[in-house]
Amino acid sequence: MLMVRRTCLAPRTGEGEWLRNNIFQSTCTILGKVCRFVIDGGSCENIVSVEAVRKLGVTTEKHPKPYRLAWLQKGGEVTVSQRALISFSMGTNYKDQMWCDVVDMDACHLLLGRPWQYDRKVYHDGFKNTYSFVFHEKKIVLLPSKPSEKIKAHGDNTNLLSYAKFELEIKEAETVYVLMGKETQAEMEVPSAAAPLISEFADVFPEELPEGLPPLRDIQHHIDLEPGAMLPNKPHYRMSPTEHEELRRQVEELQSKGHIRESLSPCAVPALLIPKKDGTWRMCVDSRAINKITVRYRFPIPRLDDLLDQLSGAHEFTKLDLKSGYHQIRIRPGDEWKTAFKTREGLYEWLVMPFGLSNAPSTFMRVMNQALRPFIGKFVVVYFDDILIYSANPKLHLQHIREVLCVLRREKFVAAAKKCVFMTPKVLFLGYVISGEGLQVDKSKIVAVRQWPRPKTITEVRSFHGLASFYRRFIPHFSSIMAPVTECMKGVKFQWTTEAEEGFQQIKEKLTTAPILVLPDFSQPFELHSDASKVGIGAVLSQGGKPVAYFSEKLSGSRVRYSTYDVEFYAVVQAVKHWRHYLFHREFILYTDHDSLRHLHSQEKISSRHASWSAYLQQFTFVLKHKAGVTNRVADALSRRVTLLSTMVVQVPGFNSFRDLFDSDPHFSEIMAAVREVRNSEFVLVDGFLFRGNQLCIPECSLRLQIIKEIHGAGHVGRDRTLQLVKASYFWPTIRKEVERYVERCRVWQVSKGKATNAGLYRPLPIPTQPWTDLSMDFVLGLPRTQRGCDSIYVVVDRFSKMGHSIP
């Protein structure tokens, strides 16, 4: 590529001389936005800038033939690995589209090179610097724009030095001066109206937690163990000298703060170090053993619809976030020994509530509700460590902030100043943007689906079609919109048409609109379905058969080399972290297609990486269930995309939401087609539901298991009776096999089932043939207690010799 751009510090004289020293540049329209473009005959490719692709939201794809782009001198090569189909217009008569390589450049947004000139048979007038060609039987003449004589300095025009260039400069120069930039931490933004109030309560926003223990409030963290449970005593993990020294330092620091002390506890769990992103270490405690024998306490969590109803009419919002909230709550006196952890130096126990204990979220919610109870429902919403203050006007809002800060000061709670937001008309709370206009969905939730790349093979079309079909009940005229896309799956050769592209973009847009991303209902359980592949992880959070949000993450760096087990585990942890505000202290169902994750808690020793992930997951209450990958259509579709993958949850549809599944069911799809064309005596279609006589047909979905579970759980009857009750109202091809499998695995039925055969006739005992081969035994009870403490006799008689032994 050859393009030279000249920047002068002073304007040239002469009216026409600018044509001699400047290449062709003008403006065009791309996706409704005005962009700068350049025509350069020395460029071997058409180029679009990374900035334009990002700001305009243009879909990119992997370049079929990646290459390295060199400029006028060595050392500045750029790797080109992506391309995009750019639709642009110039004036009213010229509207065109070209494949352009995506390159990071700041000279312009679009560069038309030799491929454009060759394809459009363009003629260049070197004197006038114009380009002319015939397009759709009309002659098009492109005129250049005169460059501005005023040179403006832009903050973005910074010369970045690559590693290769830096290495070259070091070799060639004797002295190199390097100025390193350090990112500054954002300060708390306080509006001028709230500044005096925040200054008055400066003690509520300290830089660090105060020294010493927090006050002993009415509510402390209780740890009640199951009666008769065996106390764990796990050995400490072996560490390198460097790790051991770091662990010792952190333990001493916690001791100096008064958060821990030495212990004589009969139980102990190991401590270990987990590396943080900045290269430092975080001390963690593997509390799985103590959590396993801890009695779980349930605390009522406010319903989301109740919280939203309270915000009606509010126009001013303030959000407060407590600083290390767990460490501001004491352990109940007498329960400290149950938090003991072990290092090489000795045994220590917590005096404040640590992370990782099973009942810690419940305790934290109880403390916050007790402290702010007078304000909850009036002008305060509390959800764990998030405190939202809402008011109708600024004057009233300042009064409400003062009342809340007075309570925090009285209870000796401190907040993290950098995480607080004061007096704002719009605030992000629990993943939603709340303002005076109402509730809006956070746009970051739908980025994963919006950036889904255009399919390039039949397999990728099927992957997208599987996802879209799964949610077709939410899209009006789904079959009509998807028809051009499904046409691409027919035949041997793959051909992506313009109609298919329009349908693909329309389906993506409809998949990410409000009817799809519904508001979560915290009174119902969440379902989190995760999946992973070699290139990324994906998940979806759903509830009531409707998706709440998508999530995706591409694997990079060392994570690409993770084992299958680690990648699946990482997908679960990242999905739970992403939706922590939904799942924290909520019992949810976690589906994964990797069966070995179910045995995580039975491992005697785990690696530091697994310990970190496991310690984080112990804050949550969930049921881990396995789901085969072939049935995991939604998450598997997103996780196996080429560039982007997202997080999803399994669906448990109700009776009103599985009608659209008949057409995609391997058994009922043909029956549905036959019923629509000709009346079938065996099957009939009523209001979108398929019936076989009086039996409702159930397509392949998790509702089948739910039906069996409900019917069998009513009385835990046997296999045949359960099958009879299910077949009385429902039908599907594998109904017998699924009922048998479920009943055989029901532990309640296995324990309580009666004998299947009647007792036979009494038979005489066999006659013994030699001494001490056939014995009879009995007990004589209720005798007076002897001096040795015996009150019974154990009698053993040999049936052959009649010899007896009496044993006290």
From TrEMBL:
Keywords: Endonuclease, Hydrolase, Nuclease, Nucleotidyltransferase, Protease, RNA-directed DNA polymerase, Transferase. Pfam families: Integrase_H2C2, RT_RNaseH, RVT_1. GO terms for biological process: proteolysis. Its EC number is 2.7.7.49. The keyword Hydrolase applies. It is an enzyme of class 2 (transferase). SUPFAM superfamilies: DNA/RNA polymerases (SSF56672). Residues 255-434 form the Reverse transcriptase domain. GO terms for molecular function: endonuclease activity; peptidase activity; RNA-directed DNA polymerase activity. InterPro entries: DNA/RNA_pol_sf, Integrase_H2C2, Peptidase_aspartic_dom_sf, Retrovirus_Pol_polyprotein, Rev_trsase/Diguanyl_cyclase, RT_dom, RT_RNaseH. CDD domains: retropepsin_like (cd00303), RNase_HI_RT_Ty3 (cd09274), RT_LTR (cd01647). PANTHER family: PROTEIN CBG26694, PROTEIN NYNRIN-LIKE. This is RNA-directed DNA polymerase. It comes from Acer saccharum.
